[in-house]
Specification:
The complex is a heterodimer of chains A (314) and B (498). Chain A is an all-alpha fold and 314 residues long. In chain A, 77% of the residues lie in helices and 0% in strands. Chain A has a domain of 181 residues: MetI-like fold (Orthogonal Bundle). By secondary structure, chain B is an alpha+beta fold. Chain B contains 15 helices and 24 strands. The chains are: A mainly alpha (314), B alpha+beta (498). At the A-B interface, helix 2, helix 3, helix 7, helix 11 and helix 12 of A face strand 10, helix 6 and helix 11 of B.
Chain lengths: 314, 498
């Protein structure tokens, strides 16, 4: 299959995935107990007020009619109006996604280089003390829940030492330096968890490559380690790294709700959670769909990159 | 030369705004629909009420300076404060009050104040009796009506007559602060209103920081990234009570957990069984263990000790497992009872459910606990489709009210919308009506005592405790005034000199 046909086929599959996702989210939102009017007005609100609000928001229409109208709007580029915020959904999602993307990029920047180095080093010294240290250390970091790392980081660096702010959102008009300073602590829990996972995965991939016939032959011929690393090992490991990172994108963008909560950083994960609690169907649907689109696009990009890096896989 | 340079006037450093950590309002801030504590906190920054409830529960003038009623408390007249201006410069008049109250009392308007105004005030019941005079013609006598237009009815901030919807654009009001900017999910900044009728406003600006959970608010306070935590619950923040860097403001309140038992069907149809359950609970131990003492004991009626009309001479119910077992035997239930306790996942309520389960087990009642998401528990809040209103045995969260009228009417009147116990007692209905219509404190106290005694005898609900409303500030912050429903009044707040 040519690269172009492969890409086109994956785009079609991606669109089908997103459509199925929208149907699932829609159905899930409909089976949630309670309704939007009561979620906004509170559990003890007068039933007449709840009915009036549901009607005003259009939340009392039939499920199918709502879905069709929402789909029609989406095809015209309109994500609809949030029930809870009563403003267009698109800017709310864009702002939250922007925050999550910034945090995800910083986590990748912090976690990937050391994880790559640790994985390669552990493989190089496989079975030795350094390998055991890195492997066990990576495993330990993977299993520490984010909220533990986050609270520890806040207590130590934010409250005891006062080195870093514990609120992720910088003041309005802040420069890049301030912005970065505010995001360091929030990036830490995700980076720690990702480092442990990546390091162990890359160690296994590197070890497998190092034990392959052609690399053993290269080593026996006396090829220098830097040359082995650059010419043989990295080209073997990078495709796996890209695939793993693409798979981790949904976690990095939408799975850091605890981090977003603790560091006052309302990203897309927190937006999805609050939209679900508020029965805000248009906001929930748009948030999940946009997040899904990012994950599908990242997966496609990773697959294309892997095909390019490893032509034999084409 | 150096001395001369030092003598040059230095530019004054801008005063740091007072930073308040609070829950994130989910959804639009709209005076008509607000129900979350975080939302009503926002309303009270720029908006004002006709009257304000003081910490001792009494009413103080705010936008109204005088109020009186006719003989049977069906007609109330309010005189407005002259010279009050909205933030856009327009002068407050009676038409603004009429428009505000008509909107809030209109069932077609999705008003959250309807639960307060139900059977009390209808659209058209409010009319201008002069440029600065307003009359309320009520649907039924109500001696406590001024509370319905006070800060206790948190939706009732007075808005300009032509204003409806999109309040979030400018947070218009008459209050001591004006909106500088508001970013949904993140925070809001308010600046001093130099034209406020109340005089000088102490802080130049206030900054509200929204959080999705309590724990990070506490950490922000400890990390000096917030000066005030607008509200915290003691479970999970016990350390704040003894932290020398912080000051905790304790406001006694009528907020409570209500344990209802269905009075209309077995196994709790017999009042002796309900009394037995109530006698199984060791309330002082519950108050101490669950709330670290931050509250007072409940006596199985919503007539909380903070209400001046509550008769504190009514004997406090105390644990007595022996008497409880005897009551069960008298009711023919010596062999034991099995039931399901349904409740919502909120703060300490699941822990309270376990305590109730253990206490009941000690007297031979086997309880299975079902803890639900609040949305599932309340359902549609209509009988037949709400675990809250349909369950035999449940625990429900009730917030603070400055007067118990709504709690009594909705919770215990035969037609009450929140009557989860399905309690029907004509004498109770007439006592509640008498309480609400009473114009003198003595009449109200007499009705209150009768209600307290009747509810103790019948025990449709158990109220083990009323918990305090807690606000935390950094030690150097002074002048913070709060209400037990969640408002902060910050016109006099600031940091004291070191």
């Amino acid at each position: 299959m040519s690269g172009l046909r492969f890409a086109a086929w994956r785009v079609v599959l991606g669109l089908i995935t997103l459509w199925l996702l929208s149907v699932i989210v829609f159905a899930a939102a409909r089976v949630l107990p309670g309704d939007v009017g009561r979620a906004i007005l509170g559990p003890l609100a007068d039933a007449r007020a709840v009915a009036a609000l549901d009607h005003a928001l259009g939340a009392d229409r039939g499920a199918l009619a709502s879905y069709i109208e929402w789909s029609r709007g989406l095809l015209q580029g309109d994500f609809g109006v949030s029930y809870a915020y009563r403003t267009p959904v698109a800017p709310l999602v864009a702002v939250a996604l922007g925050r999550s993307l910034r945090l995800a990029c910083l986590i990748l920047a912090v976690a990937v280089p050391p994880a790559l180095a640790a994985g390669l080093t552990a493989a190089h010294f496989a079975g030795g003390r350094i390998d055991r240290l890195l492997t066990l250390g990576g495993l330990a970091l993977t299993v520490v829940p984010e909220f533990v790392t986050a609270i520890l980081a806040m207590l130590v660096f934010g409250i005891a030492l006062r080195w870093l702010p514990i609120s992720a959102e910088p003041p309005p008009g802040a420069g890049a330096g301030t912005w970065l300073r505010h995001l360091i602590l929030p990036a830490l829990p995700g980076a720690v968890a990702l480092f442990g996972y990546l390091a162990r995965t890359l160690r296994e991939a590197s070890l497998a490559a190092l034990q392959s016939d052609y690399l053993r032959a290269a080593i026996l011929k006396g090829l220098a380690w830097p040359a082995i690393l650059v010419r043989h090992l990295l080209p073997n490991v990078l495709p796996l790294l890209l695939t793993v990172l693409a798979a981790q994108l949904s976690y990095l963008l939408g799975g850091l709700v605890v981090v977003e909560t603790l560091f006052r950083y309302p990203g897309i994960g927190l937006l999805i959670l609050s939209a679900g609690r508020a029965h805000d169907f248009p906001l929930l649907q748009a948030s999940v769909l946009v997040l899904g689109a990012f994950v599908v696009a990242a997966s496609l990009a990773a697959d294309l990159a892997v095909r390019w890096l490893t032509p034999r896989a084409a | 030369m150096l001395r001369g340079a030092a003598a040059l006037p230095l530019a004054a450093a801008p005063e740091r705004p007072l930073r308040i950590a609070c829950d994130m309002p989910v959804g639009r801030i709209d005076p008509l629909t607000v129900s979350q504590t975080s939302g009503l906190l926002m309303l009270a920054q720029t908006g004002e009420f006709l009257l304000r409830v003081a910490p001792d529960g009494s009413l103080r003038p705010m936008l109204a300076v005088h109020w009186e009623s006719n003989e049977d408390a069906t007609l109330w007249r309010f005189r407005l404060r002259p010279g009050v201006r909205f933030h856009d410069g327009t002068v407050l008049n009676a038409g603004d009050v009429v428009a505000t109250m008509d909107r809030l009392s209109d069932p077609a308007q999705a008003s959250n104040a309807l639960s307060v105004f139900r059977s009390v005030l209808s659209p058209g019941g409010t009319r201008a009796a002069g440029p600065l005079a307003v009359e309320f013609r009520l649907d039924a006598p109500d001696g406590h009506f001024p509370y319905a237009v006070s800060s206790d009815n948190y939706n009732a901030i007075i808005l300009p007559a032509g204003r409806a919807g999109d309040w979030e654009a400018d947070f218009i009001g008459t209050g001591p602060f004006r909106l500088a900017h508001y970013t949904p999910t993140l925070g809001a900044r308010f600046e001093r209103n130099p034209d406020w009728w109340g005089g000088a406003v102490r802080p130049a600006a206030t900054e509200f920081l929204f959080f999705a959970d309590q724990q990070p608010q506490i950490l922000a306070l400890l990390g000096d990234e917030a000066d005030i935590v607008a509200q915290f619950v003691v479970s999970g923040a016990r350390g704040l009570l003894d932290d020398p860097a912080c000051h905790v403001i304790r406001l006694p309140s009528a907020a409570h957990r209500q344990i209802h038992m269905r009075t209309d069907r077995p196994p709790f149809a017999d009042a002796r069984v309900r009394r037995a359950v109530a006698l199984s609970l060791d309330r002082p131990a519950i108050l101490s263990g669950l709330l670290y003492g931050q509250g007072v004991l409940g006596n199985d009626s919503p007539c909380a000790p903070i209400y001046p009309e509550t008769d504190l001479a009514v004997p406090q119910r105390a644990a007595n497992p022996g008497a409880a077992r005897r009551l069960l035997a008298e009711a023919g239930q010596a062999g034991g009872i099995a039931a399901t306790l349904v409740t919502e996942r909120l703060q300490e309520i699941p822990d309270l459910a376990v305590i109730v389960q253990q206490a009941c087990a000690a007297i031979g009642i086997a309880l299975e606990i079902r803890v639900e998401d609040p949305a599932l528990y309340y359902g549609t809040a209509q009988r037949g489709s709400s675990d809250w209103l349909d369950s035999d045995f449940g625990i429900t969260d009730y917030g603070h009210r400055a007067v118990p009228d709504v709690l009594l009417q909705a919770g215990f009147a035969s037609n009450g919308a929140w009557n989860a116990a399905h309690f029907r007692d004509p004498r109770c209905d007439s006592l509640i009506a008498a309480y609400r219509a009473a114009r003198t404190a003595a009449a109200r106290r007499a009705a209150s005592r009768a209600i307290q005694e009747l509810l103790l005898a019948q025990t449709p609900v158990i109220i083990p405790y009323f918990f305090d409303f807690l606000v935390a500030t950094r030690r150097d912050v002074t002048g913070v005034s709060a209400s037990a429903i969640g408002q902060l009044f910050l016109a006099g707040a600031g940091r004291s000199a070191a």
